[in-house]
Amino acid sequence: MTDFCLHPRLEADSLLVGDAALSRVLLFDDRRYPWVILVPRVSGLREIYELPTADRNQLLEESCRVGRWLMREFAADKLNVAAIGNLVPQLHLHHVARYRDDPAWPGPVWGHSPAERYAESEAASRISALRDGLGLVVAVE
Questions:
Q1: CB 67 within 8 A of CB 81
Q2: C-alpha closest to that of 43 among 83, 84, 3, 92
Q3: What is the pLDDT of residues 65-124, one digit of tens each?
Q4: What's the pTM?
Q5: CA of 96: how far to CAs of 67, 78, 107, in Å?
């Protein structure tokens, strides 16, 4: 994992939360949606099936941990999980807590409207809650 580098688009659109065993954990910078992204720290991958079996299993465990936390923390109506990658080819997995009254419901959040960025204090609070709730270590760049 030493040659891992986050795609510039992910870096620009998200806030660093920390590292799980396999994945870099990011908070998508749109305060309207509780939105966490997992990026396996393995270079050159585009698709989940390209991960070795043990890493695939670890990604699923991390995804389930994120999903459980989001649903418990935000009492959402639905959890959307997706590995789209049309604009960002680097393997990454989105987790978005959705509500029947959110701005994009029932459609996808992607491309719905411009992001509403977190205020600094709001981002710090959300990141702290994520670190505590998911038991993450702070990523070292």
A1: yes
A2: 3
A3: 999 999 999 999 999 999 998 889 999 999 999 999 999 999 999 888 999 999 999 999
A4: 0.94
A5: 8, 8, 12
- 98 within 8 A of 110, measured Cβ to Cβ: no
Q: Token pair for residue 34?
A: 């509780």
> Judging by beta carbons within 10 Å of its beta carbon (0-12, 13-18, 19+), is residue 114 exposed, middle or buried?
exposed
Q: For residue 111, what are its two tokens?
A: 């491309």
Q: Kindly report the average pLDDT of the chain as a whole number.
A: 94
The superfamily (CATH) of domain 8-134 is: HIT-like (3.30.428.10)
Domain ranges of the chain: 8-134
- pLDDT, mean of residues 19-29: 97
Distance CA 47, CA 40 (A): 11
